[in-house]
Amino acid sequence: MSDDDHQFESKADAGSSKTFPQQAGTIRKGGHIVIKGRPCKVVEVSTSKTGKHGHAKCHFVSIDIFTGKKIEDIVPSSHNCDVPHVTRTDYQLIDISEDGFVSLLTENGNTKDDLRLPTDDSLLTQLKDGFGEGKDLVVSVMSAMGEEQICGLKDIGPR
Predict the structure, then answer these.
(1) pLDDT for res 16
(2) Does domain 19-84 correspond to CATH entry 3.10.450.50?
């Protein structure tokens, strides 16, 4: 069997991971962590002293960055936790469709049409009102672990 009989499948994401490991004792308030498979923002960390038979434990109180639900977890401080790669990208709003999706303009001039309107009522109202008034709006899209959601809005002036 020769070496050129092997075929490799290529992946679009070049095999990059959705998370990276970080020691639990080094994760701080304001950072991110994966708890129960969900990307979360840490709002409180408390560390207990080492017990008679074991490690110091970190108690994490966090908020899911997409659903806003509070999630807690306790992890030995010397163990590794998954930390999500969280990115924010700004896109210009082009259109809001009747089925609840938005059309956004990317940096390279293409359109992105796979995002739903935000679930946050005040953000949704600002977005619809601003668009209805003909304002130029830029939306911030947060993405982590294969999920994306509109999380912010900026008015860059009238069209």
Answers:
(1) 62
(2) no
- Architecture of the structural domain at 87-158: Beta Barrel (2.40)
105: closest CA among 94, 115, 97? 94
**CA distances to 117, 130, 135, 137, 150 from 158, in Å:** 21, 10, 4, 9, 21
pLDDT of 101-122, one tens digit each? 999 998 888 999 999 988 888 8
**pTM confidence score:** 0.78
Q: 76: exposed, middle or buried (C-beta count within 10 Å: 0-12, 13-18, 19+)?
A: middle
Task: For residue 76, give every residue at least 6 positions away whose Cβ sits within 8 Å of its Cβ, in sequence order, or none.
Answer: 24, 54, 55, 56, 57, 58
Q: How confident is the model at residue 14 (pLDDT cuts 50, 70, 90)?
A: very low
Residue ranges of the chain assigned to CATH 2.40.50.140: 87-158
How many Å apart are CA 45 and CA 75, to the nearest integer?
11
d(CA 146, CA 114) in angstroms, rounded, equals: 13
For CATH 2.30.30.30, the residue range(s) in the chain are 19-84
Cα Rg of the chain, angstroms: 21
The reported pLDDT for the residue numbered 8 is 45
